[in-house]
Amino acid sequence: MSLPEPSPLFFSRLRLEYIPRIMLIEGQAYPEPWTYNMFRQELENECSYFCAMFQNDLMVGYGGFWLLLDEAHITRVTVIPELRGQGLARKLMFHLLEAAVDHGAVVARLEVRESNAPALALYERLGFLREGRRKAYYQRSNEDAIVMAKKLVSGM
Ligand SMILES: CC(C)(COP(=O)(O)OP(=O)(O)OC[C@H]1O[C@@H](n2cnc3c(N)ncnc32)[C@H](O)[C@@H]1OP(=O)(O)O)[C@@H](O)C(=O)NCCC(=O)NCCS
Question: Which of 27, 74, 148, 149 places its Cα 20 to 30 Å from the Cα of 131?
Fold first, then answer.
């Protein structure tokens, strides 16, 4: 007997009405969560690409980047706790990197908490390389950030 195909994913650009649900996920996902106003600003920031990921009618994750000249600076990559470990973050990242290329980015860059093993493994698996470290980047914990980058356009 074959297993049923997982429901397809649907990506939708950020809307004001998504923010309350995002805030619930955000609070569980990050030690230094973004505030409501930070998400609101994403709606107005012309450099921002931010989207929510849905499976059926359920928001299962969200993520985004800021387009800074030809760099896509990844700001958020989040999957709901109940559905982690099923490849959803990888699909979200594919979507973000494709959108970044469509917007003219030639490189994607991000910071990740040194102790965030799942995220470090995710980005390494996607071909991101470690570039350096920002000392005590996370203010509450004083933890270092690892800076990672991936070329999006071959021949650079
Ligand atoms: C990091 C996060 C987005 C991963 O989401 P996910 O949907 O579970 O990840 P995926 O199932 O797509 O996994 C893709 C790859 O990531 C790595 N990975 C994911 N979870 C992992 C874990 N718990 N331990 C080790 N590696 C892990 C693996 O390399 C995996 O590939 P593989 O299954 O082929 O080995 C999720 O844990 C999350 O939302 N965390 C809280 C928010 C956060 O820290 N975001 C990153 C900010 S920098």
Answer: 27
